[in-house]
């Protein structure tokens, strides 16, 4: 869940003299990150909190790159958490850092680099004003698009400043771009290969000489910045490439991946899916039982591995997150009609298929069969989850009701109480709920119905129950 940044009070220091009298020590950004990272590791704290599934693979590589003081490129297919990983790096900066008040490029009071700040400190000395910048404001980001210009990234002439009477040779007529405005921070270029090659050239000095050049100005502006870029693997993207001199200047390349373990997939869904409604909402938040989250995680992995899916494009983690949110939305829709609590059931799963079709790239040979393939993989995921969760559970009493000729009609508009009424009480419900991790389910019709319907679908997929689908309704029978 995205939460607001909590800001604590910044230091009370307001002038250069007060700063010199304090115990403040000026460090370059990479030294600052290195020392804070070492402190976290020594304390046994996670270096990049909120990053799931990368603990033994990607995170150590990132840590080594930061400890070495390297700028880095993060390579990975879509939906592997590249941007999330990069944004998390800002948590390794000091919470507050001093800057010359009013400086456009966040000059440190001890080492001013722009002409304005040098003149201000030369004139006012220890009375020069100092402001404090929070680490959340020390992260800059630019999505590389074909229309991105050197002026956007580095800077250009500001016609307003020229019109005010300054001469074109005056460095103060420069309007700084995004990168120098993130001086003394972290700057990220997302999807770097999409940046035109002539624009990539403008980053060469930033990575090697650590300065920028703006048009024809006699300007050497040293930058203190950690530069991080993201990109898709070169064998996937056909939109561009990282030019060789620029690629050579990055100190490290880190490859991301999709979750390797099912548990990581589940953790990622639970962390990112937005199922908690705003404070003050008049409706209770929907409930998606653990066995359905597990099922969707398995479904995602099956889609990712399916031969019909274009393996070069991958299947984003957003696929699973959106699927859980869709299932929850289906439960909310039913609850709005029936007046019951919103608890997701197996009958909500079919809504995932059409909603997620646009997130998967299929091979040309399977064009037109997308929904058929996805429905088949969803049934496989349901069967696998049933075997994993309920192997060895005695469902004889539930199946016996159908052997006696009973039928049960369900669907995404059938209330939980109505489903339970059709089945009636049966032995083994408590064990079923316990195995599914729903301890309080016996007292909650929604959870009891969710567990029972999952068992019915599992019996059907195990060829122990028949199932007919008629006009959006599902009928289970012997």
Structure in words:
- This protein is of the alpha/beta class and about 475 residues long.
- The protein has 2 domains: about 15-255, 3-Layer(aba) Sandwich (Rossmann fold); about 260-475, no CATH class.
- It is about 40% helix and about 10% strand.
- The protein has 20 helices and 14 strands.
- The strands form 5 sheets. The protein has a 5-stranded parallel sheet.
- The longest helix has 22 residues, at about 315-340.
- The protein is elongated and about 95 Å long.
- The chain starts with 15 loop residues before the first helix and ends with a strand.
- Mean pLDDT is about 90; it is low at about 1-5.
What is the annotated CATH architecture of the largest domain? 3-Layer(aba) Sandwich
Distance between the termini: 44 Å
Structural class: alpha/beta
Largest β sheet strand count, sense and barrel closure: 5 strands, parallel
Shape estimate: elongated
CATH topology call of the largest domain:
Rossmann fold
Number of helices: 20
CATH top-level class of the largest domain: Alpha Beta
Report a brief summary of the structure.
With about 475 residues, this protein is of the alpha/beta class. The protein contains 20 helices and 14 strands. Helix 12 (about 260-270) crosses helix 13 (about 290-305), helix 12 crosses helix 14 and helix 13 (about 290-305) packs across helix 16.
Blueprint (SSEs and pairs):
Blueprint: H1 16-21, H2 29-43, H3 58-67, E1 72-75, H4 82-88, E2 96-100, H5 115-124, E3 130-134, E4 139-143, H6 150-153, E5 155-157, H7 159-163, E6 174-176, H8 178-181, E7 185-190, H9 197-200, H10 204-208, E8 211-212, E9 221-222, E10 225-231, H11 244-249, E11 252-255, H12 262-272, H13 290-305, H14 317-338, H15 352-356, H16 370-390, H17 396-403, E12 408-410, H18 416-423, H19 429-435, H20 445-461, E13 466-470, E14 473-477
Parallel strand pairs: 1-10, 1-11, 4-7, 7-10
Antiparallel strand pairs: 2-3, 5-6, 8-9, 12-14, 13-14
Helix pairs in contact: 12-13, 12-14, 13-14, 13-16, 16-20, 18-20
């Amino acid at each position: 869940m995205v939460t607001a940044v909590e800001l604590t009070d910044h230091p009370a220091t307001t002038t250069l003299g007060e700063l010199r009298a304090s115990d403040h020590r000026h460090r370059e950004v990479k030294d600052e990150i290195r020392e804070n990272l070492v402190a976290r590791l020594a304390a046994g704290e996670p270096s990049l909190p909120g990053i799931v599934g990368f603990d033994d693979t990607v995170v150590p590589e990132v840590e080594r790159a930061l400890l070495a003081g390297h700028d880095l490129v993060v390579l990975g297919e879509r939906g592997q958490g590249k941007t999330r990983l990069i944004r998390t790096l800002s948590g390794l900066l000091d919470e507050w850092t001093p800057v010359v008040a009013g400086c456009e490029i966040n000059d440190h009071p001890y080492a001013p680099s722009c002409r304005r700040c040098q003149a201000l400190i030369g004139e006012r000395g220890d009375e020069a004003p100092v402001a404090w910048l929070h680490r959340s404001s020390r992260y800059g980001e630019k999505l590389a698009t074909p229309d991105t210009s050197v002026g956007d990234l580095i800077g250009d002439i500001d016609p307003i400043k020229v019109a005010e009477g300054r001469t074109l040779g005056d460095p103060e007529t420069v309007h700084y771009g995004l990168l120098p405005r993130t001086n003394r921070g972290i700057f990220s270029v997302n999807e770097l290969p999409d940046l035109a090659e002539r624009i990539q050239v403008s980053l060469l000095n930033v990575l090697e000489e650590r300065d920028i050049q703006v048009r024809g100005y006699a300007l050497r502006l040293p930058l203190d910045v950690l530069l991080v870029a993201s990109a898709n693997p070169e064998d996937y993207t056909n939109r561009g490439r990282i030019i060789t001199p620029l690629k050579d200047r990055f100190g490290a390349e880190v490859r991301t991946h999709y979750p390797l373990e099912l548990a990581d997939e589940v953790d990622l869904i639970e962390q990112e899916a937005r199922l908690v409604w705003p404070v003050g909402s008049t409706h209770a938040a929907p409930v998606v039982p653990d066995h359905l989250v597990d099922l969707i995680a398995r479904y995602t992995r099956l889609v990712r591995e399916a031969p019909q899916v274009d393996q070069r494009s991958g299947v984003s983690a957003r696929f699973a997150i959106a699927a859980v949110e869709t299932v929850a939305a289906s439960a909310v829709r039913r609850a709005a009609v029936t007046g019951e609590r919103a608890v997701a059931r197996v009958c909500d799963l079919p809504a995932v298929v059409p909603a997620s079709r646009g997130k998967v790239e299929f091979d040309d040979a399977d064009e037109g069969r997308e929904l058929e393939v996805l429905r088949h993989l969803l049934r496989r995921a349901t069967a696998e989850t049933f075997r994993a969760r309920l192997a060895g559970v005695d469902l004889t009493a539930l199946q016996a009701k159908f052997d006696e000729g009973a039928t049960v009609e369900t669907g995404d508009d059938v209330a939980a109480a109505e489903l339970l009424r059709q089945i009636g009480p049966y032995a083994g419900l408590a064990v079923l709920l316990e195995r599914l991790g729903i301890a309080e389910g016996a007292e909650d019709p929604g959870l009891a119905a969710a567990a029972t319907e999952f068992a019915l679908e599992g019996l059907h997929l195990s060829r122990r129950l028949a199932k007919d689908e008629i006009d959006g309704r599902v009928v289970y029978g012997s």
